[in-house]
């Protein structure tokens, strides 16, 4: 089993595991048999088929009973991208919606307007594949942590949160698509915009990002230089703030390189997630094979 | 103004801007005067003082009217860490709670049980400092994108989501603190655990992470090597999957270095956020000063 420990990454391992290695777990989940250690590890996505047995499980009922459903039998559900952390959408769930999601691993909600269960993607095919579910301290709010098959919003937007209140208040015209983005993705988006503007002639001194985008040699020398400086903070026992600063430099310059190659941060994180869902042995092999 | 463009990063610029440079914006926000271009850019956190003028603004009322409040006058509010993307907590808001948050920049909710307004942190002092607010497509759900002053949960947990439903179903004993974490932070957490286990003698071959943690020379040679390989995917025009894979290697090895130095990814992202909130000139100066 993975030298990196058992985390939700392990759910992915199952996608590769053959069904022969999948045993029905007593509590309704699945177990992954590690031949080398003759032990079973619990994983949940061995099969993407809805597992009806899960409904028979008493622990399952205990869990559903433990949710603090409101007077209408509902709780809040937030779908979040497991790699980027982007909040994709928010809906409501009832007992049946949560049970269906646990069983099918597709984010399922209860529509208050249509008074019916609905699985996100049932018409658009843009399902949200759920890898884990988290309850909050009050047990009346949950996170579906998963990977969307495509844009989540019915408008075609990546997420449903694309209207900035502060920009609306501050600007005469609201931005068309002002997606809620956290630091790394906001920086990625800015760099991507700079790349798209490369063909537009510019007055004055070009920005540092523009210079890097126009000069592969400069960019690569900076990526190597910043990685070296990051290492030196360890080798020369420099203080923590210096390490954070050099790592920020590494990230920024690497993001420019990714933008040039047309690679998204999300793709990189997906590689990491899949890699650390493999066994330690597999992981080392794959690293060797890569380079 | 910043060569990196106007994003929510600019809100931070204001924290450094002197009040002399802050002008009350006609719509109730603040403006940042860019001397070099004699233009004003809107920013919102010039002052952390509640801005009562904002209430006078008609655009502000238009916004509050546009929210699809439910039959109880409520909407869902999700607080998210601007740097890590972690969902901190979820509550409900009424018109007054949203107005207060926009004005005070402290995440404020409406307590359904106590039927009163409450600002997260008013007793614990662990406020959530809000940098932007996003409405969803239905206008009945919002994100408070901000930075927490400390742990958000009343239990002392970093976020309120620390109970994994799938782990509960699959294990005889639930984990004490099974925080909802996205890919990068899950990997960071695993590496940190490996670091904590270093003093524990281990049977068998050590994991790759353990080896790196125990050998600075090996670790630094890997960080430099992976950065070099990332660059070569650009220089030698290799395909995108190769770039994503090499960047994953850079990230993983750099995360081990950060763990050794006791630096969190969140600290690095904060550096990036603050850096790109500065003007292009300031940013270049600070880079020069750093290295």
Task: Kindly give the count of domains of chain A.
Answer: 2
Helical residue percent band of chain A: 40-55%
Which CATH top level class of the largest domain in chain A fits?
Alpha Beta
Please, what is the oligomeric state? Answer: homodimer
Largest sheet descriptor of chain A: 4 strands, mixed
Rg of chain A (C-alpha, Å): 23 Å
Say what the CATH topology of the largest domain in chain A is.
Ubiquitin-like (UB roll)
- First-last Cα distance of chain A: 23 Å
**Can you give the mean pLDDT of chain A?**
81
Number of helices in the DSSP assignment of chain A: 10
CATH architecture of the largest domain in chain A: Roll
Low-confidence stretches of chain A: 1-50, 279-284
Quick one: which chains have the greatest interface? A-B, 123 and 121 residues
Q: Strand portion of chain A, in percent?
A: 15-25%
The number of E-state strands of chain A comes to 10
Order of helices and strands of chain A: HEEEHEEHEEEEEHHHHHHH
- What is the 3D shape of chain A? globular
InterPro entries (chains A, B): His_synth_HisIE (IPR023019), HisE (IPR008179), PRib-ATP_PPHydrolase-like (IPR021130), PRib_AMP_CycHydrolase_dom (IPR002496), PRib_AMP_CycHydrolase_sf (IPR038019)
Catalytic activity (chains A, B): 1-(5-phospho-beta-D-ribosyl)-5'-AMP + H2O = 1-(5-phospho-beta-D-ribosyl)-5-[(5-phospho-beta-D-ribosylamino)methylideneamino]imidazole-4-carboxamide; 1-(5-phospho-beta-D-ribosyl)-ATP + H2O = 1-(5-phospho-beta-D-ribosyl)-5'-AMP + diphosphate + H(+)
GO biological process, one term (chains A, B): L-histidine biosynthetic process
Protein name (chains A, B): Phosphoribosyl-AMP cyclohydrolase domain-containing protein
């Amino acid at each position: 089993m993975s030298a990196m420990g058992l985390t939700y990454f392990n759910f992915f391992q199952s996608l590769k595991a053959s069904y022969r290695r999948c045993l029905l777990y007593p509590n309704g989940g699945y177990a992954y048999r590690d031949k080398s250690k003759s032990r079973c590890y619990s994983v949940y996505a061995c099969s993407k088929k809805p597992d009806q047995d899960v409904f028979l499980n008493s622990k399952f009922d205990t869990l559903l009973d433990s949710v603090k459903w409101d007077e209408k039998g509902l709780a809040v559900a937030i779908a979040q991208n497991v790699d980027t952390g982007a909040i994709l959408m928010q809906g409501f769930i009832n007992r049946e919606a949560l049970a269906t999601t646990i069983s099918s691993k597709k984010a399922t909600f209860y529509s208050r307007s249509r008074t019916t269960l609905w699985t996100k993607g049932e018409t658009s095919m843009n399902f949200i594949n759920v890898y884990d579910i988290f309850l909050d301290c009050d047990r009346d709010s949950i996170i579906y942590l998963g990977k969307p098959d495509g844009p989540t919003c019915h408008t075609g937007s990546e997420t449903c949160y694309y209207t900035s209140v502060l920009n609306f208040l501050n600007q005469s015209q609201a931005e068309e698509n002002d997606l809620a983005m956290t630091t790394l993705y906001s920086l990625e988006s800015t760099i991507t915009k700079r790349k798209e503007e490369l063909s537009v002639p510019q007055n004055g001194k070009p920005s540092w990002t523009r210079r890097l985008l126009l000069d592969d040699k400069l960019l690569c020398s900076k990526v190597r230089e910043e990685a070296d400086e990051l290492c030196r903070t360890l080798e020369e026992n420099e203080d923590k703030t210096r390490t954070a600063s050099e790592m920020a430099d590494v990230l920024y310059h690497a993001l420019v390189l990714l933008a040039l190659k047309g690679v998204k941060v999300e793709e990189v994180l997906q590689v990491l997630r899949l890699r650390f869902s493999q066994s330690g042995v597999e992981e080392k092999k794959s690293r060797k094979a890569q380079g």
